[in-house]
């Protein structure tokens, strides 16, 4: 997925690195090396606690995350070197990863 956020202070782009290596040299800042986990959706809007549960499981294992949401589902990005720990943490909570 590709995510774009524009505020009065910044424009942020999140996209797969392999397709964009050449364009990273012109970025003001970049932080490559993230892996994306997709939460299976769509989920009803009145369903609460999904992201909180994911965040808590990762926090308890010392894994930071970057969360992104769409109309249908959520995505959780974790640093590549923490992917194994993230998967173990989520499986430990009963998630299918």
Report what the structure shows.
- The protein is an alpha+beta fold.
- It is built from three helices and five strands; from the N terminus they run ββαβαββα.
- The protein has helices at 21-24, 50-60, 83-92; strands at 3-6, 11-14, 34-38, 66-69, 74-79.
- Strands 3-5-4 form a three-stranded antiparallel sheet, with no helix packed on it.
- Strand 1 and strand 2 form a beta hairpin.
- Helix 2 crosses helix 3 (83-92).
- The protein starts with a strand and ends in a 5-residue tail after the last helix.
List keywords for this structure.
single chain, 97 residues, alpha+beta, two-stranded antiparallel sheet, 3 helices, 5 strands
Total strand segments = 5
Q: Termini, distance in Å?
A: 18 Å
Name the shape in a single word.
Answer: globular
Structural class: alpha+beta
Radius of gyration from the alpha-carbon trace, in angstroms: 15 Å
Question: Element order, helices and strands?
Answer: EEHEHEEH
Query: How many helical elements?
Result: 3
Order of strands, widest sheet: 3-5-4
Query: Residue share in helices?
Result: 25-40%
